Queue: 2 jobs
Job 1
Amino acid sequence: MLFQLTRRAFIAVISGCLVIAAKTQDDLQGRLKRDMTILAGSEMAGRGNGQEGLNKAIDYVINSYKKIGIETEIQRFPYHFSNSKNEEPDGYFSNVIVTVKGCDPELNSQHVVIGAHLDHLGSRPSYGGGITIYHGADDNASGTAALMELVRYYQKNPPARTLLFIHFTGEEWGLHGSKYWVSHPTVDIKSVRFMVNLDMIGRFDPIKAVLTFTAMGMSPEAIAKAKAMAPKGMSVETDRGTSIFANASDHAPFAANNIPACFFFTGIHSDYHRPTDTVDKINWNGLTAITLYVQRFITEYAGREDIPEFQYRPNLGMDSEPGRKVRVWRVHQGGSAEAAGLKQGDILTHINDKAVGSPKDLERVLDLFSRGDRVKLKWDRDRIRMETEAVLQ
Ligand SMILES: [Zn+2]
């Protein structure tokens, strides 16, 4: 009990560092709270794909914008269940899009996409009767509320390039909204210079004080700048696309289409995809600080004279589990790791003679090589040492 009390007091002090004490902060935090409380409330019933609650959430977002004179565009698209034999679609998803025209006539034909998924797991019948709501406060009412706030801010303060804000749906069923937008873009896809994704940014842990920043195809200089802009008391850890979470949200289809993309994330927790992901567990100071940080980052990035093209960095085509070893979580279809015969659970130990003891090590060692290099991989499978060659992709 004493430990809990001490820990709580410590949280109050540490999260206090993140507050940028000013009235505007209070207003911003108030709006984030209001939007999130409604989006993750019982009325929206978990915003499930194919369920009425998601339509209510879509209406809420559209009406909130309408009240302040912001127009939205709906991109409606069909879905088919993977086991469906119907020729007709089994249903429809909708992406909700807001455009903020850039203020520089030379640069405003270029776009920056900022996205957050609106859908979550919805409601399911409970064992023993009744309904269980998966509120999805962190996942992803947090990113949605932050996105709405960014729309409000940029409507009044447009940067040089045009911003496209997209509330994706179908994410929880397989990134359907972002995949559809990338294959049916509402603007010329070549004009999209960069993508920012907000998914689960509400559970900033004041003890660890880490915000994960997955950056795919971004230049090292841009990554360094982003890290340097981090709020006081927050350490921004980059993942350049080799972790278990790196391909698990809406930025991934953009990166796969060679659009530099990044993803802000406060990390996985024990309420993840459970009915207990509720608003009372949100770190409001953390969410407020992250929203403002992302805003500074977008302003800097969308306003700069030149945005670097997608930077290819050597890759093994696999995701690894977090931890002290490089344990394979998933090999990508058609990738180097698959061709080399690696499977889930294998522990990669060396690339040529360079030891890779952790996922961070793996990123560092991969950067010593170039795409197309033929390398020797060593790994352990059930304590048996294996070795083969692979070509870095
Ligand atoms: Zn989720």
Note: Residues 318-391 form a domain with the Pdz3 Domain fold (CATH 2.30.42.10).
Job 2
Amino acid sequence: MHKAKALIISCIDFRIQRTLMRWLESSNYVGKYDHISIAGSLRDIVKPENEIYLQNLIRQLKISLDLHSPHEILVFDHQDCGGYASDNLIPNGLSKQEDFIRHKECAQKARYILFNEYEIKIPINFYYIDLLGNIESLI
Ligand SMILES: [Zn+2]
């Protein structure tokens, strides 16, 4: 069994990739993680726009867990995310503080759903990336 240090779930948005890579390098994750890159990261867990989107995300997640038994899941949300804005789950144009609070609420829901409905028992940590290149813990 090839064991991964972590499963990373992040948005596709090009604006956050440099910040995310820098963080993964400085935190010693490079070469040690599976990566699901999907618009809005876990937004389809919280409020799926489409059942197929949800099932695809869960499928990718379970494949990583089954094949590589990561020690933890790290989820990266970000400021001004179009994935969350597509149905106004978190609209664009909020202040950074308000945007952060809304992502925090979604992160709490996502973690609850993953623990209770999908019985994912490894730690799930959520981070927020702003558009200035900062990463902070969400929950
Ligand atoms: Zn995004």
Note: Residues 11, 13, 39-40, 78, 81-83 surround zinc ion (CB under 6 Å).
